[in-house]
Design a protein that fits this description.
Length: 113
Amino acid sequence: MDLQLNGKRALVTGGSRGIGRAVCGLFGRLGARVAVAYSRDEAAARATVAEIEAAGSTAVALGADLAGDGEAERLFAQAEERLGPVDVLVANHGIWKRAAIDTMTAAEWDEMV
């Protein structure tokens, strides 16, 4: 399969580490312009941006706490302001409370999801 994302703009949440970082790198190598969204580790997000730029594409690091009201909308607006209309969204962010689901409180579940 010949997958190319030339000219596409992607927003990847949780893009500074793990699976999100791998997705960002792949998208960059495939020619996409990538918005690397992160919640805490700006240095890791900037390292991901540098990796994408080294592959010859464009990327930006955008901080957002997606648990906050209006943050998703603000993040999307920032991504579109910096890169243009978003073509691809990878919603990769999230946390795991390291507890059995059946013992979580409603507040812990809400925070995790």
